[in-house]
Specification:
seven-stranded mixed beta sheet, 38% helix, 23% strand, 7 strands, 200 residues
């Protein structure tokens, strides 16, 4: 079933978007990837799933809300695992995410905003869960920031652009504010580039 899901997602994303743009980054084959991204639509996880297929080449995992897991059962084929907010079970989900990062073949996608926000929101606020994963995983991963933007420009179909940046800092001994601030700088830089695109 997974190969069917892979084919379906690649075709769906390919048919939906006019262009799929991203910058190249160097992937450390000896480390897993903790991919931290903004969350603004249904498409976020699918876009980054295809990005992984095109560029990162890791085994994809993504933490999603329990309600989403129940509603979108097919996401289990994308390595989705659920988290129940305001529940003791959340600690088990965070531990599981950290354990996945012990394997250099894995990628774990996190949306630390916790819910959907505007694609061009001014500030990206992080919830505490991401820091718990960072502390438990003990720097065995490559930290990768992704800022994704969708715009139509002059085409009937939108274009998607993913701005990627590797952060070599280890935030295990820092606050969630420090990690959020580092991501915020990347997000703002990506948003600035996005607004300066020359439409010919």
């Amino acid at each position: 079933m997974k190969w069917i899901f892979d084919t379906y997602v690649r075709r769906l994303v390919g048919k939906t978007f006019h262009e799929f743009l991203y910058n190249e980054i160097e992937v450390d084959s000896n480390k897993s990837i903790l991919l931290v991204a903004n969350h603004f639509s249904f498409w976020d996880g699918l876009i980054l799933y295809v990005l992984n297929d095109k560029l990162l080449h890791k085994k994809f995992h993504v933490m999603i809300l329990e309600d989403t897991a129940k509603r979108e059962g097919m996401l289990r084929y994308a390595g989705a695992f659920s988290v129940s907010k305001n529940s003791r079970d959340i600690l088990q989900s965070l531990d599981y995410a950290a354990q996945l990062l012990n394997n250099p073949g894995n990628l774990v996608l996190m949306f630390p905003q916790g819910k959907l926000y505007s694609n061009f929101v001014e500030k990206v606020n992080f919830e505490q869960g991401l820091l718990k994963i960072v502390k438990k995983a003990e720097g065995k991963y490559q930290l990768l920031f992704a800022a994704t933007f969708i715009q139509y420009f002059k085409h009937k179909k939108p274009s998607v652009t993913v701005y990627l940046k590797t952060d070599n800092d280890n935030y295990a001994d820092k606050s969630i504010d420090a990690l959020q601030s580092a991501y915020q700088q990347h997000y703002e830089a990506g948003k600035l580039l996005q607004t300066e695109i020359d439409i010919k």
